[in-house]
Amino acid sequence: MAPQTLHASLPPFPPVPSAPLVSVRLGALEAGDPSALEALWDAARGLGFFYLDMLGSELGEAIVAEAEQLNQLQERFWSLPNAEKDRYGRPHLHDFFAYRFGEIEEKDENGDKIRNQNYNPRLCSDFQIRKDDVLGLTPRLACPPMILEAQALLASYMRHCHAVMDLLFMHLTTLLGLPPNTLLDLHKLESRSGDHVRFTRSPVQPFDEGTARRGEHTDFGSLTLLFNWLGGLQIRTPDTHQWVYVKPVPGSPIVNLGDAMVTFTAGLLRSNIHRVVPPPPPQDALPRSSLVYFCRPEDDVVLRRLTGGIIDDQPVSESNEPEMTAQEWWMKRGTGQLPGIFTKKGFEPFVGGGDVYAGQSAQAAKAGA
Ligand SMILES: O=C(O)CCC(=O)C(=O)O
Ligand SMILES: [Fe+2]
User: Can you give the residue ranges of the Fe2OG dioxygenase domain (predicted)?
Assistant: First the structure.
């Protein structure tokens, strides 16, 4: 039986224009169904986003059920007092794997930011739980007792999400004409990597263009598996350049490709820009959460184009940028040290002025996807 999800108990997603994501059935990918592979290939090159329909797959339905449980856990996490959450925040814990929050910037007469924990409402917040901590691959960062108590659930969820990633990597390797296991070998579950689960939270707030722009980003890992229950995620469509909502679909989380896949494939695959804004009415009266699994290349993988298959037919771009390992890349991108935006042409650092989107992406780096 299909797992129950929270969607049905929430106000409905309204009939606003929404992004044309195709739906790919996980069960069909597991069976190697050629039409599902074709849909995966088109989505990976076209929009870089698709729904992954979990229903009818044992693995998929387990993930949906676990995501609901983790969403209940994140409700409890978000209801902790701010002072308690701050114990697990930057900079005490880790520059990237930590609790982070944005605030409405109140300035004093000198233009200095007023820090008043009780007054300034917290804007979008997130909390990261590292795969290597949960699977015992690294000394564990401090975390609230409720997270430790959910160890079995988190470990199972991470293993299950990674199994989905493995399946996608296997098919994408074949579709790209690469030697067997090429992408799998760069993303082994038991190797150290920047994979993590993210809880995100946005309070009820009016739409604000400046805030929306600061959050525009591409994900800088390889593949992302995203559950959300209310609208608010928007992507900018490659053809019309319009921001459009992505409708949450029960049982069908969203998969999107990140910057590493663009680099590995010399621009064949797409990492599309996206952002989170308040949900469309009538969903805007509720705070919004999402649950994200980010899959990144193993820490010591050097980010450069792969050789083989149809990647070899791609033009060679002249770049003087120094090569980085995956770990250097996510650390720099995730902590705002490398503002910029990733496009088909590769990474474009923000140098100021000019492109209307460049300023947004400089700030987007702070969104730390
Ligand atoms: O909350 C969402 O729906 C998307 C979150 C996201 O894009 C991210 O955390 O990178
Ligand atoms: Fe994202």
Answer: 193-297
